[in-house]
Design brief:
Distance between the termini: 125 Å
Structural class: alpha+beta
Low-confidence stretches: 1-27, 157-165
Number of helices: 6
Strand content: 25-35%
Strand order of the largest sheet: 7-10-11-8-9-12
């Protein structure tokens, strides 16, 4: 009997040792052994060994394994998370365009891209509103003053009242613009005297007439018509008479001898 018990005991010892070798040996396999650390979800980024959930089998070394819970046991050690690193902000740029409300920008550089589920990069550009005119006193002095406009029908009433014209040697003329931006207040105008403002639309071309009564003493052109500007088709400001909330920006196309726009798109300098 003793030899038999010894034999059985010996068998159990060999069996247990063999089982431990079988269970422990494959546990060494993982991301470090295969040298994998992949971004996103990569089906080919695999190894065979223990998973983080203590099950054994195929395990992954990609970034998505932290969400699918099938990472190899050594993923966090072999593929540590690296967060994004950015530089300091640059100085603010100048305004995108002089003599008008526009934007300025600053930026920063990405020094270290995020890896293995690290914190992503925050925005690398910032924009802010600005208006630059101190460096351009000659260029901006007139373009910052909005042109005052009203409906073209006012010109007929002006003629009927026989308003005296001091500049007899100056003929009237027309300037064509394209409306590039405007405030919502134009469409919210109420009352018969502001109804003409409802026809103002971004993108439309309009004609604005300069009649001699609108000329200031010694001037040969209406204020705000862009005649003295050197930049050609530049953006200028306008303001509707009778509604301070109706204003905007238009781009000058050029001077015409006479206005040829439809009646609803014909206006008058004041």
């Amino acid at each position: 009997m003793p030899p038999f018990r010894y034999t059985v005991t010996g068998c159990w010892i060999y069996y247990c040792v063999g089982l431990m070798v079988f269970l422990v040996a494959p546990g060494d396999a993982g991301c470090e052994d295969v040298g994998f650390c992949c971004t996103g979800r990569d089906p080919s980024c695999i190894s065979k060994g223990w998973r983080a959930d203590r099950s054994y089998g195929t395990c992954y070394c990609d970034q998505a394994c932290t969400f699918t819970l099938d990472c190899c046991h050594d993923y966090e050690l072999a593929c540590p998370a690296v967060s994004c690193v950015v530089s300091e902000w640059s100085a603010w740029s100048g305004c995108a365009e002089p003599c008008r409300a526009t934007v300025r920008m600053r930026s920063r550089q990405v020094l270290q891209e995020p890896q293995n589920g690290g914190e992503p990069c925050l925005h690398v550009e910032e924009h802010a509103g600005c208006a630059e005119y101190k460096d351009h006193p000659r260029q901006c002095s007139k373009s910052l003053v909005p042109a005052l406009i009203t409906t073209g029908g006012y010109g007929n009433a002006r003629k009927k009242r026989d308003i005296p014209v001091k500049n007899d040697d100056v003929a009237g003329y027309c300037v064509q613009f394209q409306l590039t931006s405007m405030t919502p207040g134009c469409q919210r105008s109420v009352g018969p005297h502001t109804r003409w403002m409802h026809y103002l639309r971004e993108g439309h071309k309009v004609c604005v007439e300069c009649q001699p009564p609108a000329l200031a003493a010694g001037q040969r052109h209406c204020s705000g018509d862009g005649e003295e500007e050197e930049s050609g088709r530049q953006s200028l400001q306008w303001q509707a008479v009778g509604n301070p909330r109706c204003r905007g920006v238009w781009r000058r196309f050029g001077r015409l001898d006479s206005c040829s726009c439809p009646t609803v798109h014909s206006f008058l300098f004041i």
